[in-house]
Amino acid sequence: xxxxxxxxxxxxxxxxxxxxxxxxxxxxxxxxxxxxxxxxxxxxxxxxxxxxxxxxxxxxxxxxxxxxxxxxxxxxxxxxxxxxxxxxxxxxxxxxxxxxxxxxxxxxxxxxxxxxxxxxxxxxxxxxxxxxxxxxxxxxxxxxxxxxxxxxxxxxxxxxxxxxxxxxxxxxxxxxxxxxxxxxxxxxxxxxxxxxxxxxxxxxxxxxxxxxxxxxxxxxxxxxxxxxxxxxxxxxxxxxxxxxxxxxxxxxxxxxxxxxxxxxxxxxxxxxxxxxxxxxxxxxxxxxxxxxxxxxx
Length: 297
Hints:
single chain; elongated
């Protein structure tokens, strides 16, 4: 038994620093039970979105006028809407729209914001101080939802345009964050060593500065997915996002607002899933932030 313990100790001690760091990070995440719970519900949402065709009990667009505004029952767990459509099926398919909007919107913001912030922070100068950052400050001065509504109205109604509008609204956040990370690292020893070795600027930015800046960016991206879900639901509620008959949690809230007293389940279940999705992503984002923080013990 003592020999096995010695072997185990030797195996642990011979692990590379990267493996030990990864193990420590996972332990910090696992200790945060709320973040684990948030991650589990995020996984449930992803499964719902991927396997919606298998999980949904019926076609989300199928109308049944003999089952209009039926309450939750064994036949329809979440009830039916004013057209006899199954609410559970529409909620499941709505997860596809919400996750798609969240991921693509944040992806657009990352693709646009990171390169601008990277070059702006590395080269500085007049272009950085008086053009990029002043334009970023101007965009950040607007309330995000108001700016998203304006852009969506200009681009036109539809999920694709809504995702573009939300992505553009989030872009200044990544420009500012990436620029700040570059400014904090451009004078560091490993960057100076890379410069003295004759490595080109683009390689320094891409392979030295960017990888060491991904921690805060990943945390912000995770939290912004929750914000994008809320923004898409808001735009769909106002008729600028997902268009009928495609099921969307925000559009379902808009359709059910006239039946609050008669059939409250029309708004309760999509509203509940919006709340749970946003809360779970935020909880997981908090845990991810703690996991990536080397000072967190």
